[in-house]
Specification:
The protein is of the alpha+beta class. It is 54% helix and 16% strand. It has 3 domains: 12-150, no CATH class; 210-296, Helix Hairpins (Orthogonal Bundle); 304-452, Heat Shock Protein 90 (2-Layer Sandwich), CATH 3.30.565. The chain is built from 11 helices and 11 strands. The strands form 3 sheets. It has a 5-stranded mixed beta sheet. Strands 2-1-4-3 form a 4-stranded antiparallel beta sheet.
């Protein structure tokens, strides 16, 4: 089970303050430990050097005394060592066998420290004395207990300073965080005050902070996309309502005609029934196109039955089916190069070719329609070229929009719904390809489809 450091509703300012304060706490703790340990080590090293210097001085003095007095004995040695005794020190004279011959503790020296060697520093010097089998050892022990209050004071000072700095950093971090997030807070307030019916007005970029400016630019871009999507949705609803209203209006008119004259006049009844059947067929075709387009746009690529296969059988099947559809005034030609292998859904590619050939047939009164396919630079290029009336250049960018038709009256005569190219675009996009349309000023149209090919 995951443990949350913060409630889900915790503000960003408090989160940043918490993490900054934790970072400052770790830094202060590490710094205090570092200062305390290094200070104590430096002090101990300093005292150790002083003690060693004292030991060397004692040895030098004893050596000089032995040179001046050839009969210098143990009594003289102990008497000399007693002169060097200090308050917090203890001087020991140890025989070669390890026996303590003499001890000179200071007034502040505690014998318990010698046993545990806690808070004690030690130095030793050797000296040769006649009558002994080996050198005698002079050991100097110094207690550090008188300096412990200083270390305690240092520890308390570091702790209080760390607590003060930590408290200051908490309030300072919160204040700086609030100051840094002020442009974001202002941005949020501007979002809340926006009119939901006027999303197109962008929020001004004037925060003087790169990250906030980039966020505002991204939000304005999103607003623009939402506005465009809403406009397209509204246009779609208007177009769909218009497309459904027209045949329903015609059907309603003929129903009134039937109710008025259909019982007595057979020719009126036949005309009305034929027209109503035609309009119903248009309605069913429009509904089928809408459902097909919605299915294509809402389904994922995995829903397609994409298999690696050759496009030649699909082209041959399409050629055979459409050769009988085209009138004599319009010649239909198919040309392709081999190989043409690609990962495709056979039914969707056949549907794509049907849409393109149906459009070419509708708007080519005479001339020819040529379908070509070849492979180049890792792509399969499909072209459907007709010699029809062509398309104005300014209309081409809108051809793949739903319900868009270059000439409404002309398309209504041909029975089009303006959904064919939108469906074609969805099929090509699902296969990872592209589709484009080119129409030269002289007339004619070239629909170019690019599909990813497989290396031969």
């Amino acid at each position: 089970m995951a443990i949350r450091l913060f409630p889900t509703h915790q503000s960003l300012a408090w989160r940043l303050t918490f993490f900054l304060s934790c970072g400052m706490f770790v830094f202060l703790l590490s710094f205090s430990i570092f200062v305390y340990i290094n200070t104590t080590q430096l002090f101990n090293q300093h005292e150790q050097r002083l003690l060693e210097q004292k030991g060397q001085s004692i040895r030098s003095d004893l050596t000089a005394a032995m040179i001046e007095n050839p009969v210098f004995g143990l009594a003289d040695l102990t008497q000399t060592l007693s002169l060097y005794s200090d308050v917090n020190q203890s001087i020991l004279l140890v025989s070669p066998e390890g026996k303590v011959l003499a001890a000179f503790p200071g007034v502040g020296w505690k014998e318990s420290q010698k046993k545990a060697y806690r808070n004690v520093i030690v130095t030793s010097q050797t000296i040769n004395l006649p009558g002994y089998s080996g050198p005698l050892q002079i050991t100097i022990l110094q207690s550090l207990e008188p300096f412990l209050p200083f270390f305690h004071y240092l520890l308390i000072t570091l702790s209080l300073a760390s607590i003060g700095i930590l408290a200051f950093s908490v309030f300072g971090s919160y204040w700086l965080t609030q100051l840094g997030l002020r442009p974001l807070t202002r941005f949020i307030s501007q979002i809340h005050t926006m009119n939901k019916y006027q999303l197109i007005h962008p929020i001004p970029v004037n925060s003087n902070m790169v990250e906030i400016d980039e966020l505002i630019v991204a939000f304005n871009t999103l607003l623009k996309r939402v506005e465009e999507a809403m406009a397209k949705q509204k246009q779609f609803i208007d177009d769909a309502s218009h497309e459904f209203r027209t045949p329903l209006t015609i059907i309603e008119g003929y129903l009134r005609l039937l109710m008025r004259w259909g019982k007595e006049r057979e020719e009126v009844r036949e005309e009305a029934l034929t027209a109503m059947r035609h309009e119903c067929t248009r309605l069913f075709r429009l509904i089928d196109d809408l459902l097909r387009l919605a299915k294509l746009q809402n389904s994922s690529v995995q829903a397609y039955q994409i298999e690696l296969q050759s496009l030649i059988p699909i082209l041959e099947e399409t050629k055979l089916a459409w050769s009988t559809v085209y009138v004599r005034q319009v010649a239909l030609f198919f040309e392709w190069d081999e190989p043409l292998s690609a990962p495709v859904d056979k039914e969707k590619i056949r549907q794509l070719l049907d849409i393109l050939l149906d459009n070419a047939r509708k708007y080519t009164k005479e001339g020819e329609v040529r379908v070509t396919a070849h492979r180049h630079a890792g792509w399969i290029h499909l072209h459907v070229i007709d010699t029809g009336m062509g398309i104005p250049e300014e209309k081409i960018p809108h051809l793949f929009e739903r319900f868009y038709r270059v000439e409404t009256s002309r398309n209504r005569e041909q029975g089009g719904s303006g959904l064919g190219l939108a469906i074609a675009h969805s099929i090509v996009e699902a296969h990872g390809g592209t589709i484009s349309i080119n129409s030269p000023p002289a007339g004619g149209t070239d629909v170019h489809v690019k599909l990813p090919a497989v290396q031969p």
